[in-house]
Fold this protein.
Amino acid sequence: MRKYRLIGLLIISSCTFVHAQQHDPDLLYIKSRMDSIQSFSVDLTLDVDIDFINMPTKKVKMKYTKNKPIRFSSEDFVMLPKRGLDFTLNSLLSYSYITVPRGEEIRNGKKYKAINIVPTDPNSDFSIALLLLDISNMRIAESEISTRKDGTYKLLMNYAKPTEVLPTKVEVAFEVQRIRIPFNFMGKDTEINRKKMRESGYKTGKIYLTMSNYIIDHIQ
């Protein structure tokens, strides 16, 4: 019986690699749209949903320059899981990878193309990612990224217009216990229920972002 189970696992693994692609063509097109952006800046309105943290709405400035880390600036401390806020796919696709088709998934009555991204370079800091591609508008609708050290991030992205490649609203869900949160530097207007924090087991937090005043420079 054990022999047959092993044979079955080998067959499943073989099927997965047969269907794997070096690079999904729709993903490559979306990436090319992202790669055309040289830099952008945008104003963020940020709200946190973690049951033991009461933090008022924050205002943040986000700046992106191609091939450089995303920078944030604010008059007050802002807690951001920066690893989950890469709208340009740079960190996700900077190392060699393959893509595996996962069929279609439906969100709010709309169909999206689902693919897995599997890194083939051991230096990559994520183990697998699931992307939902909006094929009609050629952009990312949702991503779920499992990192090697910081847990899993899930991003839901909304856009103001069909032609836009950068989102105007993003919901980020992340594993609270996997992130080092510097509570002492979250601002005097933030309240933390430390007893509730200690009693909390596995907990998922959410951040809600609203973007405005995009200034985008494209490669000439």
In short: Confidence is low (pLDDT under 50) at residues 2-18.
